[in-house]
Amino acid sequence: MLAVLLIYTTAVLTVAAQMNLTPLGNATQSSLHYSGKPQNAIEPPDSNKWSFDKCTHTSYGRTKAWWMFTFSFGYAYITDIKIYYREHFAYRMDGFKIYVTNTSTIPPDGYLCYEDPDPGLPNITQTIPCFQLGKYVIYYDTKGDGTYGTWGPTVELCYVVIKECPPSYYGNLCQSRCPVNCSGPCDLETGQCTDGCINGRFGETCELDAQCFTDSKMTNCTPEIYQLNPLSGPRGGGTILTISGKYIGSVNDSISIDISGVRCHNVTVGKPHFNGGATFTIRGEGFYNVEKITVERVDKHCDVLEDTSVVCKTPQNRRNQPNNQTVHVHFDDLTLPVNVEYVEDPTFEKFPVVYEYDKESSIQIKGRNILSGARLEDYRIHVGLDGSCLLTDIDMQLITCFPPKSVPRTNKTDLNTVHVIVDVGNIKAYIGDLHYKVDINTLAITVGIMTAALITAVVISVFAVIIIRKKKKRTIQEFEIELMTREEMIREASRKGDYFFL
Ligand SMILES: *[C@@H]1O[C@H](CO)[C@@H](O)[C@H](O)[C@H]1NC(C)=O
Ligand SMILES: *[C@@H]1O[C@H](CO)[C@@H](O)[C@H](O)[C@H]1NC(C)=O
Ligand SMILES: *[C@@H]1O[C@H](CO)[C@@H](O)[C@H](O)[C@H]1NC(C)=O
Ligand SMILES: *[C@@H]1O[C@H](CO)[C@@H](O)[C@H](O)[C@H]1NC(C)=O
Ligand SMILES: *[C@@H]1O[C@H](CO)[C@@H](O)[C@H](O)[C@H]1NC(C)=O
Ligand SMILES: *[C@@H]1O[C@H](CO)[C@@H](O)[C@H](O)[C@H]1NC(C)=O
Ligand SMILES: *[C@@H]1O[C@H](CO)[C@@H](O)[C@H](O)[C@H]1NC(C)=O
Ligand SMILES: *[C@@H]1O[C@H](CO)[C@@H](O)[C@H](O)[C@H]1NC(C)=O
């Protein structure tokens, strides 16, 4: 299994969905022009398209115009307000203001969230952040529309969205939970308890126990330490300790702890680092003084790079164990727990058939979880015995790379076929075979050589035939001569009455 090392933080990042509050209330406005009623702005659609039954419309010729939203349930934790104004009518919106208030008085008396600045016309669709606790949201305009002196301001809102944090959340995205001992909600920006504490606590976030802390925040109680992490550190010192317990004083108190007479400070665990296997770096001090640094279930000792940093390999995740695990690193006989998150191993698809490679293009290797635990630089793609594929692109499902242009060495019988192996962490996956196409030039040369050979062969055989023929002819001639000679001899003999041949 590949492993990713995580630096755990205490913050839990849950982004609570912000809710649109407009369905939970009702709207009013300064006056009504035809059917441009105030509710039109809280009913869909969310668009700037105007008509009397989709947008609001207040009467002309007034000195002020307003639209007000009232929450049916009292207070709400508003985070932002989005408005859609009538299209092409930005000049009527010019100079508008948005308030959050606790009273319905006009002119508004409360928090001014936004005032359209001069010069220039406002955008007809705007999101206005406004972190406030309040009962009313008021769109307010006292500026005339500027076209006809007497028309005065008008409100033509087509849609309004008012967002809030759910109770007991705070932060820009409502991502943080209010302290548990707050009585009720907390400040939307800082998370401080606005309505006091419960459980006999006090302090801005109700973190302090009244029994033990006076107003000067000095502890009256004897500290109780539940846990010390790590319980020990390298001999040379250099360990940052996490202490949990009760009455340990405020966060910034300096607490010093000595282990076996050595002051501990500064050990952090570095980011994951892959290089042929999942490794991680531990930084601290005094590592040269440690004889042996090991990780549980890993045979190889960690490499001490320098006095302040050491690189260790992560152990294999045990079967049926959760993916988040604490791995213990041993410094001689001292132990440091390190959190490791194991992720799904990448898997790769085999080439369905031998990959015909044209020596030009890139090849693609498909898979899953390709980047879940590893990075581009952790991958090696072996082509044949001594080639490697040059990675150009990588994502979760696909690796793109360029194999070498000339055929690498191979252990296959066909010299133009090589294997492709993906090498990452402890994984070596055989993907399939790559066949280097025999290119045109080689083909031409081969054909040339073969033609030449053929011609030579033909020429040679022709010569051979000629020579053989010549030889035959000569033999025949010799035979004929001999025959004639013998004939001659016989004739001669018969003439002389010699019966020697009869
Ligand atoms: C909103 O107020 C109007 C006028 O008072 C009323 O007719 C309407 O029913 C109210 N709507 C809701 C959803 O309460
Ligand atoms: C409305 O009242 C609440 C409770 O008193 C207060 O926290 C809040 O700041 C007030 N809102 C405005 C806009 O004044
Ligand atoms: C209008 O919108 C544009 C682009 O979203 C933004 O840059 C500009 O600041 C906005 N103007 C006003 C007055 O809000
Ligand atoms: C909240 O109060 C209870 C009771 O005093 C206490 O046990 C708990 O630790 C407090 N929680 C926090 C986060 O302070
Ligand atoms: C602790 O120190 C930090 C930085 O020095 C400071 O921002 C913070 O307010 C301090 N906290 C307390 C409770 O004193
Ligand atoms: C702890 O580490 C920080 C940052 O590396 C360094 O500035 C500081 O001096 C170290 N503290 C000690 C006591 O060595
Ligand atoms: C492991 O821890 C990380 C970081 O805290 C978290 O995001 C993740 O969900 C955890 N995974 C499991 C399986 O618990
Ligand atoms: C060729 O080499 C690969 C990788 O080293 C190996 O997996 C494969 O078994 C070898 N094939 C033969 C026929 O030796």
UniProtKB/TrEMBL annotation:
One of its GO terms (biological process) is negative regulation of cell adhesion. It holds the Pfam family TIG. Residues 1-17 form the signal peptide. GO terms for cellular component: plasma membrane; semaphorin receptor complex. It comes from the Eukaryota. One of its GO terms (molecular function) is semaphorin receptor activity. The chain crosses the membrane at residues 443-468. Keywords: Membrane, Signal, Transmembrane, Transmembrane helix. Residues 222-343 form the IPT/TIG domain. This is IPT/TIG domain-containing protein.
